[in-house]
Amino acid sequence: MNKTEGSARGRRAGSPDTRSEILEVARRRFLSDGYRTVTLRSIAAEAGVDVALISYFFGSKKGLFGATLGLLANPPELLSAALPGDRATLPERVLRTVVATWDDSDRGSQLRLMIAAIVQEPELTRLFREVLEREMVGRLAEYVGGADAPYRAAAFTAQVAGTIFTRYVLELEPIASMPADELVRHLAPGLRAALYAPTARRRVGPQA
After folding, report:
1. Cβ of 183: how many Cβ atoms within 10 Å?
2. Per residue in 21-44, pLDDT tens?
3. Which pTM does this prediction carry?
4. 152 lies in the same domain as 114
5. Where is the HTH tetR-type domain (predicted)?
6. Same domain flag for 89 and 192
């Protein structure tokens, strides 16, 4: 057996075509099976590549998800980039990341298209909800810690989503034209309270 014949065997090496085929498999699997249940190994097996090649191309599962939507700015990865640092100033870092990303003409336009698609396509809505729950609310809950961390993380995410909707979809003034520094000054305290302020948990169910 010569080297040419031997190199043709086994799993395929990376190439632009291979990358496109991985994306096609991932997009179909995410939409049909959901984000939570799909694994990189199952995508690699179906695409006929080594799982390490997917990691090489896309870095992680959330990176692969962003690539399947063609996103220049992938929300879960933006959150991951903002997490390192002083816990007290996380709200400021998240807000500045959101504003810088959505104010960018290319990345912001693409994210607006993503929002429109999510609203119109139930399958994409379900998929994106799973991504938010796992890669954003879940990550924030781990970051905050404590029994009520999921509630705090969800409240934080809801406030950030509301800011995006108000500033970039509704374009409600004066929020829409407010400079980034001023927006952060007004909104960061509420986000900080959602994550860190002491709260009393209500009892659920019949009272003794």
Report:
1. 20
2. 898 888 888 877 877 788 899 999
3. 0.69
4. yes
5. 16-76
6. yes
